[in-house]
Amino acid sequence: MLSKQKASLTLYGKEQHEDVVFTLISTISPLAKTQTDPTSIPICDLYPSGVFPVGQECEYPPSKDGHSAAWRMSNDEKQVLDKANEEMWNDFRQAAEAHRQVRQYVRSWIKPGMTMIDICERLEDCSRKLIKESGLNAGLAFPTGCSLNNCAAHYTPNAGDPTVLQIIDCAFTVTFNPKYDRLLEAVRDATNTGIKCAGIDVRLCDVGESIQEVMESYEVEIDGKTYQVKPIRNLNGHSIGPYRIHAGKTVPIVKGGEATRMEEGEVYAIETFGSTGKGVVHDDMDCPHYMKNFDVGHVPIRLPRAKHLLNVVNENFGTLAFCRRWLDRLGESKYLMALKKLCDLGIIDPYPPLCDAKGSYTAQFEHTILLRPTCKEVVSRGDDYRDVHMHKHSHSRPMQKHTHIYRHS
Protein backbone atom coordinates (compact mmCIF):
# COMPACT_ATOMS: atom_id res chain seq x y z
CA MET A 1 0.00 0.00 0.00
CA LEU A 2 1.41 3.36 -0.98
CA SER A 3 1.40 6.22 1.46
CA LYS A 4 2.01 9.79 0.40
CA GLN A 5 2.81 12.52 2.87
CA LYS A 6 1.55 15.83 1.57
CA ALA A 7 2.31 18.94 3.58
CA SER A 8 3.69 22.36 2.91
CA LEU A 9 6.89 24.17 3.74
CA THR A 10 6.90 27.90 3.18
CA LEU A 11 9.20 30.70 2.15
CA TYR A 12 8.67 34.44 2.11
CA GLY A 13 5.09 35.50 2.36
CA LYS A 14 3.50 32.10 3.02
CA GLU A 15 3.32 30.28 6.29
CA GLN A 16 1.86 27.22 7.87
CA HIS A 17 -0.80 25.86 10.12
CA GLU A 18 -1.25 26.69 13.77
CA ASP A 19 -2.60 24.09 16.15
CA VAL A 20 -6.22 24.36 17.19
CA VAL A 21 -7.93 22.63 20.10
CA PHE A 22 -8.38 18.93 19.41
CA THR A 23 -8.51 15.76 21.44
CA LEU A 24 -4.87 14.76 21.34
CA ILE A 25 -3.78 11.18 22.00
CA SER A 26 -0.41 11.17 20.28
CA THR A 27 2.32 8.73 21.21
CA ILE A 28 6.00 9.20 20.42
CA SER A 29 8.26 6.28 19.63
CA PRO A 30 11.69 6.47 21.28
CA LEU A 31 14.58 7.35 19.00
CA ALA A 32 17.33 4.74 18.79
CA LYS A 33 19.71 7.33 17.32
CA THR A 34 20.07 11.07 17.25
CA GLN A 35 19.76 12.75 13.89
CA THR A 36 23.00 14.05 12.43
CA ASP A 37 23.81 17.64 11.52
CA PRO A 38 23.39 18.05 8.60
CA THR A 39 20.38 15.74 8.50
CA SER A 40 21.26 12.42 6.87
CA ILE A 41 20.03 9.37 8.83
CA PRO A 42 16.97 7.68 7.26
CA ILE A 43 13.84 7.77 9.40
CA CYS A 44 13.63 3.98 9.36
CA ASP A 45 17.08 3.85 11.01
CA LEU A 46 16.07 6.38 13.65
CA TYR A 47 13.08 4.18 14.54
CA PRO A 48 14.37 0.61 14.09
CA SER A 49 11.23 -0.80 15.73
CA GLY A 50 9.34 0.36 12.66
CA VAL A 51 6.87 2.29 14.80
CA PHE A 52 6.76 5.98 13.92
CA PRO A 53 5.31 8.99 15.78
CA VAL A 54 1.53 9.23 15.68
CA GLY A 55 0.06 12.51 14.48
CA GLN A 56 -2.65 14.57 16.13
CA GLU A 57 -5.64 12.32 16.86
CA CYS A 58 -9.06 13.96 16.97
CA GLU A 59 -12.58 12.78 17.69
CA TYR A 60 -14.88 12.99 14.69
CA PRO A 61 -17.15 16.05 14.79
CA PRO A 62 -20.90 16.03 14.24
CA SER A 63 -21.75 17.02 10.67
CA LYS A 64 -24.08 19.88 9.74
CA ASP A 65 -26.87 17.48 8.80
CA GLY A 66 -26.80 15.68 12.15
CA HIS A 67 -24.54 12.71 11.38
CA SER A 68 -22.08 11.98 14.19
CA ALA A 69 -19.12 9.63 14.33
CA ALA A 70 -17.70 10.48 17.76
CA TRP A 71 -18.72 7.03 19.02
CA ARG A 72 -16.07 5.42 16.85
CA MET A 73 -13.18 6.19 19.19
CA SER A 74 -14.44 3.80 21.88
CA ASN A 75 -16.10 1.22 19.62
CA ASP A 76 -14.47 -2.23 19.88
CA GLU A 77 -15.14 -3.18 16.26
CA LYS A 78 -13.65 0.06 14.95
CA GLN A 79 -10.60 -0.37 17.16
CA VAL A 80 -10.00 -3.80 15.62
CA LEU A 81 -10.32 -2.34 12.11
CA ASP A 82 -7.97 0.47 13.04
CA LYS A 83 -5.38 -2.00 14.27
CA ALA A 84 -5.73 -4.06 11.10
CA ASN A 85 -4.70 -1.01 9.05
CA GLU A 86 -1.84 -0.03 11.34
CA GLU A 87 0.81 -0.82 8.72
CA MET A 88 -0.76 1.63 6.29
CA TRP A 89 -1.09 4.37 8.91
CA ASN A 90 2.50 3.73 9.92
CA ASP A 91 3.71 4.33 6.37
CA PHE A 92 2.08 7.75 6.42
CA ARG A 93 3.68 8.49 9.78
CA GLN A 94 7.12 7.56 8.48
CA ALA A 95 6.70 9.98 5.58
CA ALA A 96 5.33 12.63 7.95
CA GLU A 97 8.34 12.33 10.25
CA ALA A 98 10.65 12.67 7.25
CA HIS A 99 8.77 15.80 6.26
CA ARG A 100 9.02 17.30 9.76
CA GLN A 101 12.76 16.69 9.89
CA VAL A 102 13.27 18.16 6.42
CA ARG A 103 11.43 21.29 7.56
CA GLN A 104 13.74 21.54 10.56
CA TYR A 105 16.79 21.01 8.36
CA VAL A 106 15.77 23.66 5.84
CA ARG A 107 15.36 26.38 8.43
CA SER A 108 18.96 25.84 9.55
CA TRP A 109 20.50 27.06 6.29
CA ILE A 110 18.03 28.81 4.03
CA LYS A 111 18.84 32.49 3.54
CA PRO A 112 18.33 35.38 1.14
CA GLY A 113 20.58 35.34 -1.90
CA MET A 114 20.22 31.63 -2.64
CA THR A 115 18.79 30.59 -6.00
CA MET A 116 15.52 28.71 -5.97
CA ILE A 117 17.16 25.81 -7.80
CA ASP A 118 19.79 25.46 -5.06
CA ILE A 119 17.13 25.56 -2.36
CA CYS A 120 14.92 22.98 -4.06
CA GLU A 121 17.71 20.56 -4.87
CA ARG A 122 19.22 20.71 -1.39
CA LEU A 123 15.81 20.17 0.18
CA GLU A 124 14.97 17.28 -2.15
CA ASP A 125 18.35 15.62 -1.59
CA CYS A 126 17.64 15.60 2.14
CA SER A 127 14.15 14.18 1.58
CA ARG A 128 15.57 11.36 -0.54
CA LYS A 129 18.02 10.42 2.21
CA LEU A 130 15.45 10.47 5.01
CA ILE A 131 12.90 8.37 3.17
CA LYS A 132 15.67 6.07 1.89
CA GLU A 133 14.73 6.58 -1.73
CA SER A 134 14.11 3.34 -3.59
CA GLY A 135 12.53 3.90 -6.98
CA LEU A 136 8.76 3.61 -6.89
CA ASN A 137 8.85 2.05 -3.42
CA ALA A 138 9.94 5.21 -1.61
CA GLY A 139 10.69 8.71 -2.76
CA LEU A 140 9.28 12.10 -3.69
CA ALA A 141 5.71 12.12 -4.94
CA PHE A 142 5.64 15.73 -6.11
CA PRO A 143 8.29 18.33 -6.93
CA THR A 144 9.06 21.08 -4.44
CA GLY A 145 6.64 23.88 -5.20
CA CYS A 146 7.76 27.48 -4.79
CA SER A 147 4.70 29.62 -5.27
CA LEU A 148 6.12 33.06 -5.94
CA ASN A 149 4.24 36.34 -5.51
CA ASN A 150 0.80 36.00 -7.14
CA CYS A 151 1.50 32.40 -8.18
CA ALA A 152 -0.51 30.10 -5.92
CA ALA A 153 0.64 26.64 -7.06
CA HIS A 154 2.74 24.47 -9.38
CA TYR A 155 5.85 26.62 -9.73
CA THR A 156 9.24 24.97 -9.34
CA PRO A 157 12.37 26.23 -11.10
CA ASN A 158 13.47 24.66 -14.37
CA ALA A 159 17.15 24.48 -15.30
CA GLY A 160 18.55 27.94 -15.90
CA ASP A 161 15.89 29.72 -13.83
CA PRO A 162 17.80 32.63 -12.25
CA THR A 163 15.21 33.39 -9.56
CA VAL A 164 16.91 34.29 -6.29
CA LEU A 165 15.36 34.16 -2.85
CA GLN A 166 15.35 37.77 -1.69
CA ILE A 167 13.63 37.28 1.63
CA ILE A 168 12.57 34.46 3.90
CA ASP A 169 9.11 34.76 5.43
CA CYS A 170 8.12 31.36 6.71
CA ALA A 171 7.40 29.13 9.65
CA PHE A 172 11.11 29.09 10.41
CA THR A 173 11.93 32.80 10.79
CA VAL A 174 12.68 34.66 14.00
CA THR A 175 11.99 38.25 12.97
CA PHE A 176 8.88 39.23 11.08
CA ASN A 177 6.98 41.86 9.15
CA PRO A 178 3.37 42.06 10.37
CA LYS A 179 2.28 43.40 6.98
CA TYR A 180 1.07 40.01 5.76
CA ASP A 181 0.06 38.49 9.10
CA ARG A 182 -3.66 38.97 8.64
CA LEU A 183 -3.65 37.25 5.23
CA LEU A 184 -1.71 34.33 6.60
CA GLU A 185 -3.89 34.12 9.68
CA ALA A 186 -6.97 33.98 7.47
CA VAL A 187 -5.70 31.07 5.40
CA ARG A 188 -4.31 29.21 8.39
CA ASP A 189 -7.62 29.61 10.22
CA ALA A 190 -9.51 28.42 7.13
CA THR A 191 -7.37 25.30 6.84
CA ASN A 192 -7.77 24.47 10.50
CA THR A 193 -11.51 25.00 10.12
CA GLY A 194 -11.52 22.54 7.23
CA ILE A 195 -9.64 20.03 9.36
CA LYS A 196 -12.09 20.45 12.24
CA CYS A 197 -15.09 19.98 9.95
CA ALA A 198 -13.69 16.99 8.05
CA GLY A 199 -14.65 13.47 9.05
CA ILE A 200 -16.43 10.27 8.15
CA ASP A 201 -19.91 10.90 6.70
CA VAL A 202 -19.24 14.65 6.43
CA ARG A 203 -20.32 16.18 3.11
CA LEU A 204 -17.52 17.78 1.11
CA CYS A 205 -19.71 20.78 0.32
CA ASP A 206 -20.12 21.47 4.05
CA VAL A 207 -16.35 21.53 4.52
CA GLY A 208 -16.02 24.01 1.65
CA GLU A 209 -18.76 26.26 2.99
CA SER A 210 -17.12 26.39 6.42
CA ILE A 211 -13.72 27.20 4.90
CA GLN A 212 -15.14 30.05 2.80
CA GLU A 213 -17.06 31.55 5.72
CA VAL A 214 -13.94 31.74 7.86
CA MET A 215 -11.58 33.00 5.17
CA GLU A 216 -13.90 35.75 3.96
CA SER A 217 -14.35 37.02 7.51
CA TYR A 218 -10.82 38.44 7.32
CA GLU A 219 -9.58 41.70 5.89
CA VAL A 220 -5.93 42.61 5.43
CA GLU A 221 -4.32 46.01 5.04
CA ILE A 222 -1.20 46.02 2.87
CA ASP A 223 0.62 49.24 2.01
CA GLY A 224 -2.35 51.35 3.05
CA LYS A 225 -4.94 49.43 1.02
CA THR A 226 -7.56 47.12 2.54
CA TYR A 227 -8.42 43.79 0.89
CA GLN A 228 -10.98 41.16 1.76
CA VAL A 229 -9.26 37.79 1.77
CA LYS A 230 -10.79 35.63 -0.94
CA PRO A 231 -10.59 31.85 -1.24
CA ILE A 232 -9.17 30.85 -4.63
CA ARG A 233 -12.30 29.09 -5.82
CA ASN A 234 -10.74 26.96 -8.56
CA LEU A 235 -8.17 25.40 -6.22
CA ASN A 236 -9.08 22.80 -3.63
CA GLY A 237 -8.01 19.97 -1.39
CA HIS A 238 -8.37 16.37 -2.49
CA SER A 239 -8.31 12.72 -1.57
CA ILE A 240 -5.02 10.81 -1.88
CA GLY A 241 -4.67 7.25 -3.15
CA PRO A 242 -1.97 4.71 -4.05
CA TYR A 243 0.29 6.32 -6.67
CA ARG A 244 -2.36 9.00 -7.15
CA ILE A 245 -1.94 12.40 -5.51
CA HIS A 246 -5.42 13.49 -6.66
CA ALA A 247 -7.48 10.37 -6.07
CA GLY A 248 -10.89 11.46 -7.30
CA LYS A 249 -12.63 13.45 -4.56
CA THR A 250 -12.12 17.18 -4.20
CA VAL A 251 -12.46 19.23 -1.03
CA PRO A 252 -13.77 22.64 -2.14
CA ILE A 253 -12.82 25.83 -0.35
CA VAL A 254 -16.04 27.62 -1.30
CA LYS A 255 -19.70 26.71 -0.90
CA GLY A 256 -21.68 24.96 -3.60
CA GLY A 257 -19.55 21.85 -3.98
CA GLU A 258 -20.68 18.25 -4.27
CA ALA A 259 -22.67 16.61 -1.50
CA THR A 260 -20.42 13.53 -1.67
CA ARG A 261 -19.46 12.30 1.78
CA MET A 262 -16.04 11.51 3.17
CA GLU A 263 -15.64 7.82 3.96
CA GLU A 264 -13.81 5.60 6.42
CA GLY A 265 -10.26 4.77 5.41
CA GLU A 266 -9.82 7.73 3.08
CA VAL A 267 -6.86 10.09 3.18
CA TYR A 268 -7.22 13.78 2.38
CA ALA A 269 -5.04 16.79 1.76
CA ILE A 270 -6.92 19.63 3.42
CA GLU A 271 -5.49 22.70 1.75
CA THR A 272 -6.80 26.21 1.38
CA PHE A 273 -5.60 29.07 -0.77
CA GLY A 274 -6.30 32.72 -0.03
CA SER A 275 -5.69 35.77 -2.19
CA THR A 276 -5.95 39.54 -2.21
CA GLY A 277 -6.62 39.34 -5.95
CA LYS A 278 -9.58 37.99 -7.89
CA GLY A 279 -9.72 34.65 -6.09
CA VAL A 280 -9.33 32.76 -9.37
CA VAL A 281 -6.12 31.38 -10.86
CA HIS A 282 -5.12 30.77 -14.47
CA ASP A 283 -2.24 28.99 -16.22
CA ASP A 284 0.85 31.15 -16.51
CA MET A 285 4.63 30.97 -17.00
CA ASP A 286 6.80 28.13 -18.27
CA CYS A 287 5.49 24.67 -17.31
CA PRO A 288 7.70 22.77 -14.83
CA HIS A 289 5.33 20.04 -13.49
CA TYR A 290 4.10 16.96 -15.34
CA MET A 291 2.28 13.76 -14.45
CA LYS A 292 1.39 10.63 -16.37
CA ASN A 293 -2.35 10.30 -16.90
CA PHE A 294 -3.50 7.73 -14.34
CA ASP A 295 -6.22 6.33 -16.61
CA VAL A 296 -4.41 6.34 -19.94
CA GLY A 297 -4.40 3.06 -21.84
CA HIS A 298 -2.08 1.96 -24.61
CA VAL A 299 -1.32 4.78 -27.03
CA PRO A 300 0.86 4.09 -30.08
CA ILE A 301 3.97 6.28 -30.15
CA ARG A 302 5.93 6.72 -33.36
CA LEU A 303 8.65 9.10 -32.20
CA PRO A 304 11.58 7.05 -30.78
CA ARG A 305 12.65 9.78 -28.35
CA ALA A 306 9.09 9.98 -27.01
CA LYS A 307 9.06 6.20 -26.48
CA HIS A 308 12.34 6.43 -24.61
CA LEU A 309 11.12 9.30 -22.44
CA LEU A 310 7.92 7.45 -21.55
CA ASN A 311 10.01 4.47 -20.42
CA VAL A 312 12.04 6.81 -18.20
CA VAL A 313 8.85 8.22 -16.70
CA ASN A 314 7.33 4.77 -16.13
CA GLU A 315 10.46 3.44 -14.45
CA ASN A 316 11.17 6.43 -12.22
CA PHE A 317 7.88 8.20 -11.54
CA GLY A 318 5.01 5.95 -12.60
CA THR A 319 1.85 8.02 -12.25
CA LEU A 320 3.37 10.40 -9.70
CA ALA A 321 4.32 13.97 -10.56
CA PHE A 322 7.76 14.94 -11.81
CA CYS A 323 9.52 18.04 -13.07
CA ARG A 324 12.09 18.84 -15.70
CA ARG A 325 14.82 19.18 -13.07
CA TRP A 326 14.26 15.53 -12.16
CA LEU A 327 14.67 14.48 -15.79
CA ASP A 328 17.91 16.47 -15.89
CA ARG A 329 19.04 14.67 -12.73
CA LEU A 330 18.52 11.32 -14.48
CA GLY A 331 20.84 12.41 -17.27
CA GLU A 332 18.13 13.10 -19.84
CA SER A 333 18.74 15.88 -22.34
CA LYS A 334 17.04 17.37 -25.39
CA TYR A 335 13.72 15.89 -24.28
CA LEU A 336 11.39 18.89 -24.64
CA MET A 337 10.06 17.85 -28.06
CA ALA A 338 9.46 14.30 -26.83
CA LEU A 339 7.77 15.62 -23.70
CA LYS A 340 5.50 17.84 -25.78
CA LYS A 341 4.60 14.86 -27.97
CA LEU A 342 3.60 12.79 -24.93
CA CYS A 343 1.46 15.70 -23.74
CA ASP A 344 -0.15 16.08 -27.16
CA LEU A 345 -1.02 12.36 -27.12
CA GLY A 346 -2.67 12.69 -23.71
CA ILE A 347 -0.20 10.31 -22.06
CA ILE A 348 1.41 13.01 -19.94
CA ASP A 349 -0.54 15.91 -18.43
CA PRO A 350 1.25 19.26 -18.01
CA TYR A 351 0.65 21.25 -14.82
CA PRO A 352 1.74 24.85 -15.43
CA PRO A 353 1.97 27.41 -12.61
CA LEU A 354 -1.41 28.71 -11.44
CA CYS A 355 -1.49 32.45 -10.84
CA ASP A 356 -3.95 35.09 -9.68
CA ALA A 357 -3.87 38.68 -10.94
CA LYS A 358 -0.47 40.33 -11.07
CA GLY A 359 0.32 42.36 -7.97
CA SER A 360 -1.87 40.23 -5.72
CA TYR A 361 -0.73 38.24 -2.72
CA THR A 362 -1.53 34.57 -2.20
CA ALA A 363 -1.08 32.15 0.69
CA GLN A 364 -1.59 28.42 1.16
CA PHE A 365 -1.87 26.15 4.19
CA GLU A 366 -2.17 22.39 4.07
CA HIS A 367 -2.28 19.25 6.20
CA THR A 368 -2.77 15.55 5.51
CA ILE A 369 -5.50 13.78 7.48
CA LEU A 370 -6.19 10.06 7.86
CA LEU A 371 -9.85 9.08 8.33
CA ARG A 372 -9.17 6.08 10.52
CA PRO A 373 -12.02 3.85 11.75
CA THR A 374 -11.69 5.26 15.29
CA CYS A 375 -10.55 8.85 14.82
CA LYS A 376 -9.16 11.50 12.52
CA GLU A 377 -5.36 11.77 12.53
CA VAL A 378 -3.67 14.97 11.37
CA VAL A 379 -0.51 13.13 10.46
CA SER A 380 1.52 16.15 9.33
CA ARG A 381 1.18 18.23 12.51
CA GLY A 382 4.43 19.48 14.01
CA ASP A 383 5.67 21.96 16.59
CA ASP A 384 7.03 24.15 13.80
CA TYR A 385 3.47 24.81 12.65
CA ARG A 386 2.82 27.06 15.65
CA ASP A 387 3.41 30.77 16.21
CA VAL A 388 4.22 31.41 12.59
CA HIS A 389 5.52 34.86 11.76
CA MET A 390 7.05 36.65 8.83
CA HIS A 391 10.47 38.06 8.10
CA LYS A 392 10.82 41.76 7.44
CA HIS A 393 11.88 42.90 3.98
CA SER A 394 10.73 45.24 1.26
CA HIS A 395 10.17 44.77 -2.48
CA SER A 396 8.86 41.25 -2.07
CA ARG A 397 5.58 39.38 -2.07
CA PRO A 398 4.41 35.99 -0.83
CA MET A 399 5.97 32.76 -1.93
CA GLN A 400 5.13 29.24 -0.76
CA LYS A 401 7.11 26.05 -0.80
CA HIS A 402 6.10 22.41 -0.41
CA THR A 403 7.14 18.91 -1.24
CA HIS A 404 5.48 15.51 -1.04
CA ILE A 405 7.04 12.31 0.23
CA TYR A 406 5.71 8.81 -0.21
CA ARG A 407 6.51 5.44 1.25
CA HIS A 408 5.48 2.04 -0.11
CA SER A 409 5.71 -0.99 2.17
TrEMBL record:
Q: Which principal EC class is assigned to this enzyme?
A: hydrolase
Query: NCBIfam families, per this entry?
Result: met_pdase_II
Q: Name one GO cellular component term.
A: cytoplasm
- List positions binding a divalent metal cation 2: D169, H238, E271, E366
- Positions that bind a divalent metal cation 1: D169, E366
Q: How does it assemble?
A: Binds EIF2S1 at low magnesium concentrations. Interacts strongly with the eIF-2 gamma-subunit EIF2S3.
Keyword terms of this UniProt record: Aminopeptidase, Cytoplasm, Glycoprotein, Hydrolase, Metal-binding, Protease
Mention one GO molecular function.
metal ion binding
Sequence similarity: Belongs to the peptidase M24A family. Methionine aminopeptidase eukaryotic type 2 subfamily.
Q: Where is the Peptidase M24 domain?
A: 92-279
**Cofactor binding remark:** Binds 2 divalent metal cations per subunit. Has a high-affinity and a low affinity metal-binding site. The true nature of the physiological cofactor is under debate. The enzyme is active with cobalt, zinc, manganese or divalent iron ions. Most likely, methionine aminopeptidases function as mononuclear Fe(2+)-metalloproteases under physiological conditions, and the catalytically relevant metal-binding site has been assigned to the histidine-containing high-affinity site.
Known role = Cotranslationally removes the N-terminal methionine from nascent proteins. The N-terminal methionine is often cleaved when the second residue in the primary sequence is small and uncharged (Met-Ala-, Cys, Gly, Pro, Ser, Thr, or Val).
Q: Which residues bind substrate?
A: H154, H246
Q: What is this protein called?
A: Methionine aminopeptidase 2
The cofactors it requires, by name, are: Zn(2+); Fe(2+); Mn(2+); Co(2+)
Superkingdom of origin organism: Eukaryota
